[in-house]
Amino acid sequence: MRLLAVDLGEKRTGLASGDTETGVVFPIKTLHVPRGEALVEAVREAAADHAADAIVIGLPLNMDDTEGPRAAISRSFGETMSSVTGLPVHFQDERLTSFEADMRLRGRRDTPDNDAVAAVVLLEDFLTLQ
Question: How many domains are there within the chain?
Answer without folding.
Answer: 1
